From TrEMBL:
Keywords: DNA-binding, Phosphoprotein, Transcription, Transcription regulation. The modification 4-aspartylphosphate is found at D55. PANTHER family: TRANSCRIPTIONAL REGULATORY PROTEIN NARL-RELATED, TWO-COMPONENT RESPONSE REGULATOR. The keyword RNA-binding does not apply. Residues 4-122 form the Response regulatory domain. Residues 149-214 form the HTH luxR-type domain. This is LuxR family two component transcriptional regulator. It comes from Actinophytocola oryzae. Signal peptide: none annotated. InterPro entries: CheY-like_superfamily (IPR011006), NreC/VraR/RcsB-like_REC (IPR058245), Sig_transdc_resp-reg_C-effctor (IPR016032), Sig_transdc_resp-reg_receiver (IPR001789), Tscrpt_reg_LuxR_C (IPR000792), WalR-like (IPR039420). The keyword DNA-binding applies. GO terms for molecular function: DNA binding.
Length: 220
């Protein structure tokens, strides 16, 4: 099954580079390019891609606003967005995660990691494993007072709460399975239950909720 991607970046050379990397894979097709956030939204709504690769800083409409239009909480049929940025501690990226992005990468990421990230997001999983993601969430959740703990968290079992904490640390299902000495399929079931109970679309939303609610505190 071909993964259809829209590439949004204000630099033509960057778009061309991403296209070359992605289309070197037999299962990935770049269906459109966009030089600004507004064009990205238009292209995504027209082509309904499996993933939008979205730059943060773009003219007309920035990547955060475009992400919110495509994947925000109020969007009935969201398009998965993978944000890509130059800086590993960029408050705009955290804002993009809060706006509904399924994850983010740095622009200097290795080509194989970019391809893997696109496949992960296309499969419906949030990309929260990289250490830079954990650092960013920790850094920018520290700057504001956490809101009251959502009532849905009280509905988690002890095991589900443990799973949420490990997901918030950036562990993959396989790493969680190794940590808890259970099967990966068991972890996948627990993660699915956690997302359903919390009303989260994917792992990224669950991680942000865990930090913002104070269930997980930066540095702990």
């Amino acid at each position: 099954m071909t993964i259809r991607v829209v590439v949004a970046d204000d630099q033509a050379v960057v778009r061309a580079g991403f296209r070359t990397i992605l289309e070197s894979e037999v299962d990935i097709e770049v269906v459109a390019e966009a030089a600004d956030g507004s064009a990205a939204v238009t292209a995504a709504r027209r082509h309904r891609p499996d993933v939008v690769l979205m730059d943060v800083r773009m003219p007309v409409t920035d990547g955060i606003a475009a992400t919110r239009e495509l994947a925000g909480a109020s969007v009935a049929d969201p398009v998965p967005v993978l944000v890509i940025t130059t800086f590993d501690l960029d408050e705009y990226v955290f804002a993009a995660l809060r706006a509904g992005a399924s994850g983010f990468l740095l622009k200097d990421t290795e080509p194989d990691d970019l391809v893997a990230a696109v496949r992960v997001v296309a499969a419906g999983d949030g990309l929260v494993a990289p250490a830079v993601t954990r650092r960013l969430i920790a850094e920018f959740s520290r700057v504001s007072e956490p809101p009251p703990v959502p009532g849905a968290l009280a509905g988690l079992t002890e095991r589900e709460r443990e799973i949420l904490l490990l997901v918030a640390k950036g562990l993959s299902n396989t790493e969680i399975a190794d940590t808890l000495v259970v099967s990966a399929s068991t972890v996948k079931t627990h993660v699915g239950n956690v997302l359903a109970k919390l009303g989260c679309r994917d792992r990224v939303q669950a991680v942000v909720l865990a930090y913002e609610s104070g269930v997980v505190r930066p540095g702990r």
